[in-house]
Amino acid sequence: SNMDKEEMDWKEGKSQSSNGSVTQKTDNVGIRETTKSGGSLTEGGIPLGLEALFSACRRLYPEQPNPLQVTALVKYWLGGPDPLDYISMYEVPGNLKLNIPPHWHYISFGLSDIHGDGRVHEFVGPGQPSGFGFELTMRLKREPTDKAPPTWPAALMQSLAKYVFQSESVLCVGDHVSWHSPLDGSESRLQHMLMAEDSKLGSVATPNGNMQFVQVVGITSDELRAVQHWNGAGVLDIMKRSLVTGGPLLVTDLRRGESIYEADPGVAEEIEAGIEAHGSNLSGVSAKIAWSATQPHMQCAGGGSNGDVNSDTAERVSSLESEQIKIMLKKGLMTATSLPSAASDPASAQESSCQAEKASDACGAVSEKCQAEPVELSVVTRLDSLHITINLESGALLPLALRGRLKHDRHFTFKSVTGPAALTLVAAGVSGAFVSPESPYGLRGPWLQVLIPPDLLDKMSDDLSALADPDEVKVPAQFSWPSHKLTITVHAEE
Known about the structure:
Strand content: 15-25%
Domain Suppressor of fused C-terminal: 269-490
Region (Disordered): 1-42
Radius of gyration: 24 Å
Helix content: 10-25%
Number of helices: 12
Structural class: alpha+beta
Largest sheet: 9 strands, mixed
Domain Suppressor of fused-like: 80-256
Shape: globular
Protein name: Suppressor of fused homolog
Mean pLDDT: 80
């Protein structure tokens, strides 16, 4: 996912850039192409959408009118690999009295609709989300040896933008990205990301729609686990309290050795209390998951094989069904305590207001298709017994799913990374499920639902609690509840 040098180019306001590449005077990037509907230009030839974002930057940094810029050499709409047209890099002196260290501020242009002429994003006009409705920013602590801003954050932002364009998943404040690798490719403990609102840039209404600046914050594995088991907003609030973990502007310091737990010993108790009181905001993750089952009967007419059903069903899905499943998986979960209908999403990663807005947009857009639901997806196959296999990293979230979600009458989904299959664990209090206490295991197309009744919930929570510390688990590990005809095998990562 790292950008090759030849795909990146520096533009800079004043002098030769430190990496020796050719530089140009930016003039805030004069774009002189003629544009189609919606994309009228300012006098300087800059599209209005882009000018609105530049204005926000100029208000924040009036003394830096021509910042350093990384720019995609071949623009995305011309077939280039990088979706972000530009990434501006500003120098912030910091204020240690306010717990703000000197740092670099990176700001992206390209996830929102900066052109307004349909070349990348559909033009929607004021009031709607512009493009994906956000741009990325990042604040990186400036090392005393830095002569110029490092370019790896620009490469990281391009990688995140590629993910957004390919998956059409919006990154919202409070969302996390588990990256499993030092963010700059070095030895850093910061190997994951959490999304915050950029408190200085906030949101902007542009002629091409509304957008928010979403700041990428580097976090440790401990902090990632806290976000998953509790929620992103709570962890961000804790991080802001200490200069060590970012201070009020959430400045990422790659050399930081302490997590929020080490920086403040009272944090562990605070997070535990939060999980106990509110549960977790995480409603699903991707997993390597499969299942096999005995299949007693179909609940309504329709085909279907007998014998073992596992994730191979994903391979036998017709292209029409596969389209339907894509629609199902694209739509956000609207509320914590009810499940989407068959024609909506079993597996959005997070519940947040911006996902909910996106979901209602998506549903509006596909409602006609939703009604043309193929009969296979309305057929529920009831299963007598169930054996689930799951990889360790995803299996380690089972205690969270039970304690942080089902105990609070919510659901949790493991979405297969290999095909359109998904498995949703539901509590008795979740409405809209197609399983019931009488038949707790049900399959609709490639979507398996598993109802965990209260007595089994407590037992499973106890039995699986060891998984919460995946480093200590000997795999493969098998857990079985014979009276419920349920077995779970956790296997090693491939």
